[in-house]
Structure formats: C-alpha cells, structure tokens
C-alpha cells in the first residue's frame, strides 16, 4: 500500500466509522452521546468549558467546528452559550441526524485537510480530539488557520515524551525523599503513558500528539501575535457513557479522584499534563479576552514578531516621503539591502557620529540628524534604537513617521 493509498484509506475508514454509528452496529452506543446527564457528558463538559473565555468575551462570534461528527455536539455547546456555529466532519451521517434532532442548524461534510471555505470565513475554528485522527494533521491545522479570522482552538493530547513545564507551581526533584509516594506514582503513570508513545487506532491511523513548543513554532512561523495554552488532566474510564452522573456514581468519584491526584502531582512538576487546550490567535486578543483567559488558568504568550513585519507594515506610509535609515553601521547597511528587495530606495543614512558625516556608504550619503525634515520617513537600524526613537520624538516625529527595526538573529 502506497502512502497515498494509506491516506485515502484513512479518509474512507473514518467516513465508514461514523456510518456504523449512524445506521450500523454501533448505533446504540452513539445514542449514549445524546444523554446529557451521564458521567460521559461530564467528561466532555470538562473539555468544552475551556472555550468559555472566548464565548463570554466574544458572544456574537461565528464558529466552525472540525471533526464534529458526533451529532455536532461541539457546535451544540457553542450555540447553547449564545454563539453561532457550523458543524463539520468528513462524514455528514450523524450531523444530519443532529440537525433533525435540533441539536444544530448548520453543518457541512468537509475534509479538514482540504476545506472548501474561503479565507477568514469564520471568527473561530474549534477542533476537539480530532486533530490526532487526521492522516496529515498539520495540513488540517493550516487549513483551520486559513479559514479562521480571529483564532483556532485545539483540544488535544500532549506528547508524553516531550516534557512540558506548564502550570507547575513548584518544582521538586524526582528523587526528593520527602515525597516518595508522589514520586513513585508519577513514575508509574508516566511509564504507562510513554509506553503508548507510538499508538495506532483501530482504523489504522497514527495517533498524533502535540506539544506547546510545536504550537508556538507554528504561530511564530506564520507571524501570529499570541498563543494561549491551558494543560489539564481528564481521565477516562470505560462505561462512563452509560453511568448516570449522581453523588452515588462510583465512576464519577473515581474520575474526580484520579484527576485530583494527577493535578497535584503535576503542580509539583513531577508529571506532565496529558491534555491541553491550545489557542492560536490570528488577531491580538482584546483586553477582555485576555482577562477571561487568565482567570480560567490559561498561559498567554505573545509571539516574537518577524523583523520583516515592521517593514511590511511601513510600506503604505512611504508614499511621497524621503526614506532614510538612522544608523550607518552594519545593521543599517543590512537594512538598506532589505529595503531594496521591497523596491524602496533609501536616500540617506542618518548617524549621530560626527566622524561619519559626509561619507558615502553603499552609494548614499551619511547625514546629521539636523538634516531630517517633516517629509522624511525614518527606519531606525541601530542597537541604540530606543534612544534614537526618543531623539526623533523630540524632533517632532510621530509613530507614523518611524519604524524601529530589529536585528535578525
């Protein structure tokens, strides 16, 4: 079987999988997903609640749910909390049943790796526990980022082999003899999870897992402004779909106890979290959104900006202006070459060093700051950038007249 055959088989198998739940032998089990007072429903709610900061701070947003083949229940959660949502999955069988039952109003059968939507079609895209099913999940992630306008939310397993220093309130050595029971329990759990590092599902697909660093690299590479991550434990036990959620539920008590113990161990830095909600922002989150996220335990990390981005943002402001580079050293000369790539001709270098004035470098003169006029646009290319920006402010320049360039690492 070729790689393309394996990929096509994966698509076929996942579609057939949900048809079994719709009309085949698994139909009875699928009905359990519709019972909202079970321990299984509580298990799902513990993941859905990680959407609440976005749902509360952006109530009129339009969402797309990806891999939402279980009757569109992901979209149903969003709609119940006042949002608008379109459910999608590679199979539309259970989605149509969900529409007929009134759980959702809109759905579409979509291959997540090749969506038919236009760019920026939705405010948010949400993918819960489906990314790891895709044969080429990174393609699906880039498609989600393409059709989302504000952010993409993933709730997925974390790679058990990659250590994640997330939300640990204190760090203790694994060999610390003051905590022998916690350390021993952490080792047993981690050995069990690492034994499943290369897992395959019954349909044959590899179970992909993510890491915080992997998501950060995607965001940095695409020039995204921020990433928010909240790791968590959400243990699963067989039979929770059929057990009613009540005080007498043994499965519920066991799950709560397992989650509590693992959270304590992870807080001490002894055990990596196995799951995370990860938000890749395409637009900088508003203050209200940031506040909601942090209150709910998210770590929000601004991403470093590409040095080119500041130049690209400045291009529309250069019309009719004399372009100069403040800084005639190696950084400034590098910037001159970069501006030429954008077909921008700088007319002069500006430098505070009086010994450089009157000299021509790379075909343009070095001038003193006093030569600057209100019709100039200044690219600051110096390790003294902040001080030069203050100097330009004193000369009457505004943020609209200046770009502070950053060094390439």
UniProtKB/TrEMBL annotation:
Segments forming domain Methyltransferase type: 65-151
Domain of life: Bacteria
Gene Ontology biological process terms in this record: methylation
SUPFAM superfamilies attached to this UniProt entry: S-adenosyl-L-methionine-dependent methyltransferases
Keyword hit for Methyltransferase: yes
Keyword terms of this UniProt record: Methyltransferase, Transferase
InterPro entries: Methyltransf_11, SAM-dependent_MTases_sf
One Pfam family this sequence matches: Methyltransf_11
GO molecular function, a single term: S-adenosylmethionine-dependent methyltransferase activity
The protein's name in its UniProt record: Methyltransferase domain-containing protein
Upper classification of the organism: Bacteria, Bacillati, Bacillota, Clostridia, Eubacteriales
